[in-house]
Amino acid sequence: MGSRADLIARLMIALQRPGVDGVLATPDVLEDLLLLGALEGKVVIGSMNRGGLQGSAFELDDRFTAYRTADEIAARRLDGGKMLTRIDLADPGTVATLESSAAAVTGLAEHKLMAMVEPFWSTRGADGRVTNLLDPDSVIKSIQIASGLGATSAYTWLKLPVVDELDRVMEATSLPTLLLGGDPTGAPEETYAAWGKALELPSVRGLVVGRALLFPPDGDVAAAVDHAADLVHGGTA
C-alpha cells in the first residue's frame, strides 16, 4: 500500500464493478478519485478522525483531523461521515473521542447525513500497544455505548467486525449495520463464508471492505470485489 498510484488503480477497478455502491476514505483519497471521475453515482463517506496514530501515546485521544465537522462533510456534498470510536476505560483520551464522536453524530443528523460509528472496546497492554477486544461481550459493550452517542440516532449506522456469536452480538442494537472486512487472514473462501453467514442477519445491510478485496492473494481485484458484491446483493457467489 506504499504506492499511491497502485492503490488508486485498485480502487478504480473496484468502483467500476457493478455491485459496488460507494467508497469510504480520507479526503486525500476521495479527491484523487473525484478528479478521476470515479465517484459519479456512488455513495461517498468521509473518514473524519485520523489523529490517533497507531502506536502513539495519544492513540486513543483520536482527534478529528480529516473531515473535522459535519458542516465540512455537508459542504463537500458527501453522503456521511465515519468516526472510529475506541473505548478504553483506563485511558483518559477516550472521553475526548466520545465527546467528538457524539458531536459529529448530532451534526450529521442535523444535515440528514449518515453517521457511521465504528466502535471498539479497547485496552492498552504492558508494552503500550492498543488492542481491540473482539470477543462477543466486548463488542456488545462497544455497541451499547456507540448507539447512545449524539442527540439522535436517526441517521446513525454502525460499522462492526465479524466476530464469534454475531447473531447474539447483533441483538444488542436496532441500528443498521455494515460489517468491516478487517485485515485479510486465512483462506479467502473462509472469509467469504463468514461474510455470507453474517449478511443473513436482519440488521446487517452490507460490507465495508478494504485490504481484503483490494489486495487479494491472487491479485484479481475485480473477481474478489464481484464475489463480495454478490454476497451483499443476493447473488449466487
Largest sheet: 8 strands, mixed
Indicate the low-confidence ranges by residue numbers: none
Classified in CATH, the superfamily is Aldolase class I
CATH structural fold name: TIM Barrel
Overall, the morphology is globular
* CATH structural class: Alpha Beta
Oligomer designation: single chain
Distance between the termini: 28 Å
Count of domains: 1
| CATH architecture verdict | Alpha-Beta Barrel
Q: How much of the sequence is in beta strands?
A: 15-25%
Query: Which percent bin holds the helix content?
Result: 25-40%
Number of strands: 8
- SS element count, helices: 9
Rg, nearest Å: 17 Å
Protein topology:
Blueprint: H1 4-15, E1 22-25, H2 27-35, E2 43-47, H3 70-75, E3 80-87, H4 93-110, E4 114-124, E5 130-133, H5 136-147, E6 156-161, H6 166-169, E7 177-180, H7 188-198, E8 204-208, H8 211-214, H9 221-233
Parallel strand pairs: 1-2, 2-3, 3-4, 4-6, 6-7, 7-8
Antiparallel strand pairs: 4-5
Describe the structure.
The chain has 237 residues and is an alpha/beta fold. It has one domain (22-185, 193-209): Aldolase class I (TIM Barrel, Alpha-Beta Barrel). It has helices spanning 4-15, 27-35, 70-75, 93-110, 136-147, 166-169, 188-198, 211-214, 221-233; strands at 22-25, 43-47, 80-87, 114-124, 130-133, 156-161, 177-180, 204-208. Strand 7, helix 7 (188-198) and strand 8 (204-208) form a beta-alpha-beta unit. It holds the Pfam family Cgl0159.
